[in-house]
Amino acid sequence: MKTRAYQIRLVNRDQIKLQRKQRGPGKPKKGKETGNVMPLPIYHNSDAMNPEHIQPIPITTGVITVSSSRNIETDSSGKIIATSLRQAGYAVEYYEIVPDQIETIREAMVNGLKQCDCLILNGGTGLTSDDCTIEAIEPLYEKKIDGFGELFRAKSYEEIGSAAMLSRASAGIIRKHVVFCIPGSNAAVKLAMITLIIPEIRHILTHARK
Fold it and tell me: Is the pLDDT of residue 147 over 50?
């Protein structure tokens, strides 16, 4: 798969100094360096890893939006996920909107995994009484990917501060498939897709299928 570059916020002065040293003498870039949004390449870690860890396996994906109020027209987060997957070269074979009900969420997940290698659920990961995506999905994990939730909250902290602790974003392996559960806001979906999910889908599934 071709590598892709995304924009991230550059605030680390040591990183700036390193980039200057690598760039060598020349005309400095205009604008303040701290706090600017500057294009930096984020490469898939296949460049540095043993090729056995990431195989060119066929991968299909699916999207489930957990919401009692959205429909196809208003499901902006689901559209962002599907678009991100297609742009990264992954076929989206399953899409469904389900209400905040544990059994309904599980049923949709089971149906999705019949068609997909990677399933992404958005919505229902917070702390309100209606939020039950984690209660529906986590008990079914055969292996939990602890690092996903940890990294998502760490990256969210950079964006929204201590409110990031309210997210219960999660991921795990179920029958050699990978399932991600992420918040339903557009900003959270973009963060998860661009910085965590898209770069690691193939890597995770290569290991899960062994």
Answer: yes
